[in-house]
Amino acid sequence: MACPSAEPTVTTTKAEAEVRAVLEEWAAATRQDRRDEILKNHSANLVIFDVLPPMKYEDAESYRRSWEEWQPDTQGEAFFNLENLTITAGSDVAFAHSFISCGGTLPDGGTFQDLVRATFCLRKVDGSWLVEHQHVSKPYEHS
Length: 143
What we know:
23% of the residues lie in helices and 41% in strands. The model is unreliable at 1-5 (pLDDT under 50). The chain is of the alpha+beta class. The chain has helices at 14-31, 35-38, 60-70, and strands at residues 42-49, 56-57, 79-89, 93-105, 111-125, 128-137.
């Protein structure tokens, strides 16, 4: 008699695959500095909690306007990778969380690298998934 497998069966729903595609597209646009595409799947009235001040944005346009203040110029493509992306999706609402590994080479040849955590809440509107809430944070480090 064969023993049942101890390995869990992992299935991905169509909704989860669609959400993954939206988030991977966002990461690629960010990595490649395609600024006109970064927020294309974000709701205009979303709320973003970000790791940098002012830390809260109440719409996509205010977040977009802030990029020049903190977005580093890099030589070539930066890296901006979703790691351990986990998605739970229903028919019209989804949430996801991951780590984001990011960094690159600055114009002076110096490099930077960081690891942050991210949570996304999405809603399906007129057949398309839109990010309604995005939260990026980094653990507080005692000095």
